[in-house]
Design a protein that fits this description.
By secondary structure, this protein is of the alpha/beta class. It has a single domain, classed as 3-Layer(aba) Sandwich (Glycerol-3-phosphate (1)-acyltransferase), CATH 3.40.1130. The protein has 6 helices and 10 strands.
């Protein structure tokens, strides 16, 4: 069996399993700031959320935003190949790259996707962490395009946390997940490394703020530290 066929099969199986799993989740979009009203189909937008909340996002995008065109960053690793095959089945374009490999090329490709009217999704602490630390790529992308970042906070009523570097979260079937869209975050232009670091930290604080989640519980079965 050739490698491309293996990737295709794994992507297909993963897609079917995810569709079945996600169909059991009571998924709700929460937009307290009216952020979504400004994101009409064809309007470029940068969406950012933590890596350990990644599981539901492609399903959420396909279910609630079928008229939008989506793109997401996937690493250049073998795992990234599988993830690319998977998210493309949800109608999301894969942009290959990471903060550590092909970072500049990925930034150019994401800028191109934004200029063509895509919603670009990023996990600022991925693909290898540190957990809940914003890497500079999303801040640079916002600066070079002038497009604000929309923070997404996925609040899971009940979840399993894997023994991975980020405690990757899997929502328990038939539980509720709220996808809360934060206010659009404008990144200011900077001229020094110190100013850029201040902007990076400012957005990191925005994305970290809802981490104290009342009502969210870790279900038994898979142990890990939950942050």
């Amino acid at each position: 069996m050739s490698r491309p066929l293996k990737v295709w099969l794994v992507g297909l199986v993963g897609y079917v399993l995810m569709r079945v799993w996600c169909a059991s989740i009571r998924l709700r979009i929460v937009d307290p700031h009216g952020t979504l009203r400004a994101i009409a189909p064809g309007t470029p937008s940068i969406w950012a959320f933590w890596h350990n909340r990644l599981f539901l996002t492609a399903h959420m995008f396909r279910s609630f935003f079928p008229r939008h065109r989506g793109a997401a960053l996937a690493s250049v690793s073998k795992d990234g190949e599988v993830i690319s095959a998977l998210i493309e089945r949800f109608g999301v374009q894969a942009v290959r790259g990471s903060s550590s490999r092909r970072g500049a090329a990925a930034l150019v490709a994401m800028r191109r996707s934004l200029l063509s009217g895509h919603v670009v999704a990023l996990t600022p602490d991925g693909p290898r962490g540190p957990v809940h630390r914003v890497n500079p790529g999303v801040v640079k992308l916002a600066q070079v395009t002038g497009i604000p970042i929309v923070p997404l906070h996925l609040r899971m009523e009940s979840f399993w946390a894997l023994r991975s570097w980020d405690g990757f979260r899997l929502p328990v079937p038939f539980s509720r997940v709220d996808v809360v869209f934060g206010a659009a975050h404008v990144v200011a232009a900077t001229s020094t490394e110190e100013e850029f670091e201040a902007e990076r930290l400012r957005f990191e604080q925005v994305l970290r703020a809802p981490e104290v989640e009342s009502g969210s519980t870790q279900a038994p079965g898979i142990s890990a530290e939950v942050v």
